[in-house]
Amino acid sequence: MDDELDDKKYPSAKILLDLTYKEYEYESERRKNLETKSGICIALAGTMLSLLLSRMAWGQIPTWDSEWILLQACVAVIAGISFLCTIAFLLVAVNYFTKVLIFVLYQRLDIDEAMNYTSNKEDEFAQFLIPYLCDYIEYNANRNKEKGDNFSKGLKCVRNAIVVMAVFFASRCILAFFST
Q1: Residues with Cβ < 8 Å from 178, sequence gap 6 or more?
Q2: What DSSP designation does 166 have?
Q3: Which residues have a Cβ under 8 Å from the Cβ of 107 and sit 6 or more positions away?
């Protein structure tokens, strides 16, 4: 009975190696996608920042209506705070997106070590490679998780910047209404 099992070939090691390699490729692709999206988001944050700075009325002193001066002052303070908060959110977002793009050393299969393996049986070689690939996948997945977390934080900052920027532009419209 045991002799029958020993003579039969099981392709499990080869299948596991293929699955493990697919996971390795998945993590590599995930890294590329995060870095591409971060580059696009940095460009978006830069565009938002330039739009915000171009719409700021530098050196213009608004005319104040004495009847509504308290309301105008409150709206002006809200505009100023929302302007500064938008800039802060965008700069923090760029910082997070830059952390995604910063070079992180990913682990790769050591070809020399694989070439020194002396078995000529495919299943044995696959069993030899699987633990190494699993370690590399785990390491690379952790790096990608860090990048993903930074990307998510950056997106949240951009979202907050958009909301605060809307408050800034709304307060600017209210101030423009009072000065006409």
Answers
A1: 62, 65, 68, 71, 72, 75
A2: H
A3: 135, 136, 139, 140
Is the confidence at residue 77, as pLDDT, over 70?
A: yes
- Identify which of 121, 168, 108, 109 has the alpha carbon closest to the alpha carbon of residue 14: 121
Task: Output helix, strand, coil percentages for the chain, rounded to the nearest 5.
Answer: 80, 0, 20
**SS3 assignment, position 61:** coil
For the stretch 35-62, pLDDT in tens is: 899 999 899 998 888 888 887 765 565 6
Is the pLDDT at 5 greater than 50, yes or no? no
Q: 150 pLDDT exceeds 90?
A: yes
* DSSP helix/strand/coil, 8: coil
For the entire predicted model, the pTM comes to 0.73
Answer for the pair 108, 136: CB distance below 8 angstroms, yes or no.
Answer: yes
List, in order, residues 6 or more apart from 90 with CB less than 8 Å away.
Answer: 45, 48, 49, 52, 157, 158, 161
Cα angle for residues 136, 107, 123 (degrees, 5° grid): 45
